[in-house]
Design brief:
This protein is mainly β. The chain has 1 helix and 18 strands.
């Protein structure tokens, strides 16, 4: 999905914060990216498949904005923008199709490998393009939030290197210290937990701040209020 090269992203899953992956994604199986996401909107809803379009960069009304095509349809080109929340870590993952990424707002950090390693992250500033060949293991980080534009040819699916668990997992107590709705405080501020994600050593929560903004925080960085 994007990581500094999710190569800059990927996709959807964790990085888009606040979405609950479909149960099948927890095992690490390949699943359609869109099936794992809520907050998906179309930025070209008034256009036909072959209509001309110009879609400027603007505040996203969802976490994922589809600009062209359908990422879940085999053989169909697609273009989408993804909002990465401040503090979001994208765990190691891969795709079975090539991924093209352009950072359009903020700074995105990307690394290659099967293990998340901050020392291997590379900085991608706005305007930077990254390419991740199919099957590449990658991971990412957005310290202050970012918007990345991803394009390719579907089906765009995510394979998590270490599977993926959320706060809806039946064995939640064995992984997560906090629950949905709990109030917590960390280095980014205080707020209420709306979701949690765990993949290997990466355990993060989506936090809704007192001002309504959202950010993500590592489990070890949080305390109960």
């Amino acid at each position: 999905m994007g990581a500094k090269a999710w190569l800059a992203l990927p996709l959807l899953g964790l990085a888009c914060g606040g979405r609950s992956p479909a149960p099948e994604t927890m095992s690490g199986e390949l699943r359609p990216a869109m099936a794992a996401a809520s907050g998906v909107v179309r930025g070209d809803s008034d256009k036909g498949p072959r209509d001309h379009r110009v879609i400027p960069l603007r505040p996203l009304t969802g976490d994922v904005e589809i600009l062209y095509g359908d990422p879940d349809v085999a053989g169909q080109p697609f273009v989408m923008r993804i909002r990465e929340l401040p503090g979001a870590v994208v765990p190691p993952h891969s795709h079975e199709v090539d991924e093209h990424i352009t950072v359009v707002q903020g700074t995105w950090y990307f690394g290659l490998g099967e293990t998340f390693d901050r020392d291997r992250l590379e900085e991608l500033r706005p305007g930077t393009y990254a390419f991740a060949p199919q099957g590449t293991w990658m991971f990412g980080y957005a310290p202050d939030g970012a918007i990345v534009q991803v394009h390719g040819v579907g089906p765009f699916q995510i394979r998590w290197r270490n599977g993926l668990k959320t706060l809806d997992d039946p064995q939640v107590e064995s992984v997560f210290l906090f629950r949905r709705g709990e109030r917590v405080v960390g280095s980014r501020g205080a707020g209420r937990i709306t979701e949690g994600y765990a993949s290997g050593s990466v355990i993060q929560y989506v936090i809704e701040g007192t001002d309504g903004s959202r950010f993500m925080a590592d489990q070890q960085d949080l305390d109960r209020q």
